[in-house]
Design a protein that fits this description.
Layout lengths: L5 E4 L3 E7 L5 E3 L4 E2 L1 E6 L8 E6 L2 E5 L8 E8 L25 E6 L2 E6 L5 E6 L3 E8 L5 E8 L2 E6 L8 E5 L4 E6 L22 E6 L10 E7 L4 E16 L3 E3 L3 E2 L9 E3 L3 E2 L2 E4 L6 H4 L18 E10 L10 E9 L4 H8 L9 E6 L5 E11 L4 E6 L11 E8 L1 E10 L7 E5 L3 E6 L2 E5 L8 E9 L9 E3 L3 E2 L12 E3 L3 E8 L8 E15 L32 H5 L3 H4 L3 E3 L2 H4 L10
Length: about 600
């Protein structure tokens, strides 16, 4: 019936006490012989059986219901990107394979039950209820899964999902709000890079490209939305929209890499990118068709490693045209996405003899057939749907093949790799627009989808899957809902503080159409930070300490809000803007309040 029963055992006998609810607990009229060793659904029929042993003899006592009670079995599995139909139980080393040490809660109508995860399956009795309203898993690393309306009398596999990946940017494409990319990916706060150290923030500025077909004016405005939907707090200090007009038959590109040092913030006006002649992976397989254009077919032929984000060493060799210019600025234009490590993975890797992440390296083949490294400072794409620019100018010597190799051991999935010629003498028209509207409001959590394991997991802005608190939120003051334009005007450590579930609605006044013979793209220019709730991220439990541009290392332990240097400089903001105090209380109590989950 869903209420927890009690089994008392010693070396010779076992007594079962059934819980009838409403404080009524009664012993079964029989005593089982032997010591109970296990309680499990040994026949996979939803009835719990008891295994006992007595003087070397093993016995099964088989359970049977007198009433038509129902049941639900949840089988937690650590997520793993696999490329076969076989189910993988090895996980991705973020947690143990079955999530042992976590907990599962479920609700049926007014009944709520919580169970620890102690094995590969967790059994719930659902009584006479014919559906499970809501199941929530809290994994040992704090990640949360929400499962809705599962069929009764079945076993359900619950796989671990996405934990953190920065805020998400959506744009009005003329029909709906569509996902563009993730944002402020370059400035994580407290990200652990190993057991002892956290990464410093190299740059808080971020540019992301929005193609002209992705952002269509509506009622005189360009409409964007930034959502916070993962286990994170976001700090937005500045935002503006750069309108980029450039001649037809050219491309306006930016370099969306994470690297040390960061890439230059500039708009490249180039020829239309062209496909490579041939692409071959490290297994000798021709993969030209996978990377010749942006079509959602990703280069995924490399072997995965033991940890999320770390693969086996892999590369792709690219044959370029024999007549590729050697006296003009040329670039590889690579578009794809990265499945990154996180703080917990980085800490785990540092504790043993494990391969560390190796960012992208560019090598050139010599006339003898050997390879020479020419650029080991490339870094990697800064999130989903990102384009990176890799210089090729001056790399090819006379008589040498026009062949380059792009190598790494990171989980980087290329959608396209092309080449192009820069046109430095062609100057685009760049116009920066401040937001006419910037409103913070509640959004909830978008439905996620993933076409295949090597495709990015993408949100659907127009399909809300969940509106209750999905994460154990970071504790502290966030910005109240309403107009927040004042906080976004300039880079000054006065920022919008967003909690999971929030969204910022942005409207920029439409500009007159570009000149004849010119076309238009956009770049969203921003400044800020993101901080995730991973248990191994530095100071991950709270919004404090507040980030500032003069403290890129984020290393000062928080004390109180009143003692924080940013608060002292801008205390009025906590009277006028940051008045919404967030705690995990609503998350903890979510299943206790009917109607709060969906």
């Amino acid at each position: 019936n869903g209420a927890p029963d009690i089994i008392v055992t010693d070396g010779e006998s076992t007594q079962v006490f059934l819980n009838y609810g409403k404080s009524k607990i009664e012993a079964l009229p029989i005593v089982l012989t032997g010591k109970a060793l296990a309680v499990t659904d040994s026949r996979s029929n939803g009835h719990m059986d008891i295994l006992t042993t007595n003087k070397g003899k093993v016995s099964w006592f088989l359970g049977k219901n007198k009433q038509d009670y129902h049941w639900q079995v949840v089988q937690p599995r650590a997520s793993r990107y696999v490329r076969s139909t076989d189910f993988n139980t090895t996980g991705n080393k973020r947690i143990n394979s079955f999530g042992v040490g976590g907990e599962i809660e479920y609700r049926n109508g007014p009944a709520v039950c919580k169970m620890p995860i102690r094995s590969s399956s967790v059994h719930f009795g659902t009584g006479l209820n014919k559906s499970t309203d809501f199941i929530r898993l809290v994994w040992p690393n704090g990640l949360v899964n929400a499962e809705f309306e599962h069929k009764i009398d079945t076993a359900t596999i619950a796989q671990q999902r996405l934990l953190g990946s920065c805020p998400w940017l959506f744009a009005w494409n003329g029909k709906s709000m569509e996902f563009v990319t993730d944002y402020i990916w370059r400035s994580p706060l407290g990200l652990r890079i190993n057991e002892q150290s956290s990464a410093g923030v190299m740059t808080t500025e971020d540019w992301v490209r929005i193609r002209g077909d992705q952002l269509v004016p509506k009622d005189g405005f360009y409409n964007l939305a930034i959502t916070a939907e993962l286990w994170e707090t976001h700090f937005f200090d500045h935002l503006n929209l750069m309108v980029v007009d450039h001649p037809k038959n050219t491309e306006a590109l930016i370099d969306e890499r994470f690297s040390f040092p960061p890439p230059k913030f500039r708009v490249y006006v180039t020829d239309p990118p062209r496909p490579v002649v041939k692409a071959v992976d490290n297994n000798g397989k021709d993969v030209t068709d996978l990377i010749k254009q942006r079509d959602g077919k990703y280069l995924d032929t490399f072997q995965l490693g033991d940890y999320q984000g770390i693969a086996k060493d892999h590369y792709v060799d690219l044959d370029l045209p024999a007549d590729i210019p050697t006296n003009k600025p040329t670039y590889l234009v690579a578009n794809g996405w990265i499945h990154p490590t996180d703080s917990s993975v980085n800490v785990a890797i540092s504790q043993g003899q494990h391969a560390h992440a190796k960012p992208l390296v560019l090598s050139v083949q010599n006339s003898t057939g050997s390879w020479s490294v020419v650029n080991d400072k490339i870094g990697f794409p800064s999130g989903k749907n990102k384009t990176i620019m890799i210089p090729l100018t001056g790399l090819f010597k006379p008589g040498a093949p026009r062949r380059v190799r792009l190598s790494s051991n990171m989980e980087i999935y290329w959608d396209s790799i092309e080449w192009t010629i820069d046109q430095p003498s062609t100057k685009p028209t760049l116009t920066h627009i401040a937001p006419a509207v910037a409103n913070l409001q509640y959004h909830g959590f978008s439905q996620m989808s993933q076409e295949k394991p090597s495709s990015p997991e993408l949100p659907d802005y127009n399909n809300i899957a969940f509106v209750g608190p999905r994460w154990r939120d970071l504790i502290g003051f966030c910005t109240r809902f309403g107009d927040v334009r004042e906080l976004l005007e300039k880079v000054d450590d006065r920022y919008v503080i967003m909690n999971a579930g929030d969204e910022m609605i942005l409207k920029f006044k439409e500009l007159p159409a570009p000149s004849s013979g010119w076309i238009r793209d956009f770049v969203l220019v921003g400044d800020g930070w993101e901080k995730d709730g991973n248990y191994n991220t530095t100071f991950s439990k709270t919004v404090l300490p507040l980030p500032s541009h003069n403290n890129p290392n984020y290393s000062t332990k928080p004390t109180s809000l009143e003692n924080d240097p940013v608060y002292k400089r801008h205390a009025k903001d906590w009277e006028n803007f940051h008045t919404r105090y967030i705690t995990p209380a609503d998350f903890r109590n979510l299943l206790r309040y009917p109607g709060a989950t969906k």
